[in-house]
Design goal:
This protein is 33% helix and 24% strand. The structure holds dinuclear copper ion. The site of dinuclear copper ion has 9 residues, from loops.
Length: 247
Amino acid sequence: MLNLLGMPADASTHAADIDHMIVLIHWLMAVMFVGWGSFFIYVLVRFRKGANPKADYTGAKGKIAKSIEIAVVVAEVILLLFYAIPAWATRVAAFPSENEAVVVHVVAEQFAWNIHYPGPDGKFGRTDIKLVSADNPLGLDRSDPAAKDDVTTINQLNLPVDRPVLIQLSSKDVIHSFGLYEMRVKQDAIPGMTIPVWFVPNRQGEYEITCSQLCGLGHFRMRGFVTIQSQADFTRWFDEQLKEQQK
Ligand code: CUA
């Protein structure tokens, strides 16, 4: 069923749960689609004018319709109570603590993803809208001591494998949507709000950040890259970036 739906590879710890729920919902929808479709065709034939020259004002009597309706409601309640609500509770309510997670700021803009790492001190340097320029899209104040070891990138998000990632997502201009399909992560980026998103990447590789909200003429090219690598490779990459940016 999963392959039938054409799902992308799983690359986060919660991906299988999300997929399981999607499959169940599709099964329910498939049964309802076939059910309604067959019923519609049956009604067209059964109540055709030729067989019913005179309208019957009392209508059809029978208990099947009611039982089917109750069955559909029960199936939907099960999906809500046992899948959707628990998934919401763990994905959206329970965040990893800032000390155990890799914390990254992601700031969307037309039409790029700005990534900001706090560096070894764990503190994000000050950003100021007055400092925003073509080569400093985040407006990072390099004179702030907390900014000394910060690393910023454009459209390139590197993360170590098997560690919780906590992304603080915001936007500089319009509403964008941060989509990591292989991690089963999607969250709108809204100007004026900072929205936390978390996941645990569990498969090394190259993935894509997709903007999933029509955000302007360049929406189609608002695409970033995610590299999930070993902790050692991540540290090496980070040090290289830091050296490069401190020049
Ligand atoms: Cu940003 Cu579409």
